[in-house]
Amino acid sequence: MANISVFPDSESLVAGAADLIIRSAAQAMARHGRFTLALAGGDTPRPVYARLAGADCLKEIDWSRVFIFFGDERCVPPYDPRSNYLMARTVLLDKAPIPRPNIYRIHGEEEPEKAAKDYEGALRHVLGEDALSDGPPSVGLDLVLLGMGDNGHTASLFPGLAAVTETKRWVMAAYVEVASMWRITMTPVVINAARQVVFLVSGAKKAHMVKRVLDGPSEPVVLPARAVRPASGELLWLLDKPAAAELRIDS
Ligand code: 6PG
Fold this sequence. Notes:
The chain has helices spanning 10-32, 46-52, 55-58, 84-93, 112-126, 188-191, 207-215; strands spanning 3-7, 35-39, 66-70, 72-74, 143-146, 171-176, 181-186, 196-201, 234-240. With 251 residues, it is an alpha/beta fold. It has one domain (3-207): 3-Layer(aba) Sandwich (Rossmann fold), CATH 3.40.50.1360. The structure holds 6-phosphogluconic acid (6PG). 6-phosphogluconic acid binds at residues 40-44, 71-72, 84, 147-149, 153-156.
């Protein structure tokens, strides 16, 4: 069952998301001495990352113990304006004192299948999972941030992709027709093993899809965001009022 938080506007959503990340980091560090965080791409999280890099928030996290991953990446070089890594690096990663080896970039410039395989290997290494073990990690990421497109995709899990219903691989490459590009994405196998999964969704144009994903019956293949159902972790939706406009929220 998802917990839904609705904020009056995009600014309060950004502040609420940054506060949640700071809380999650403190809880993770108290629990096991580090914070493993998968960043979302796209535009919505950008101001959240920028806020975390601001003077008020930067000091709230012990960045030396933070491990950064990406939920997905476009298959472009790291200096390409479409790169999710470039966005995160520009607004946060170059401003926070994170040890560079703790930032795990998806190598979008490499052959997609190899990049996906290598990324899964890096994830397995950090999460202490044997390279050959089947199924989800026994200890998942502490926090996975996700956005959602107005077609119900999340990360680079787009409608109809095999990755949406994958049961073994943690990371997959796929050619995304609607985006006319290759993408590399975490699959629900590793996303659903996380301790916390948080969707950040803003704006009226997402309202109908938010309603369909949260209230509708469609299968994940049609609405991949519905494939995000943490096995034991917490699922939260942080929405601004326009994105929540079609939901009936019991007060
Ligand atoms: C990406 C993201 C993608 C994004 C949604 C929403 O690589 O584009 O991972 O899943 O979160 O498309 O994007 P916006 O936040 O820009 O609306």
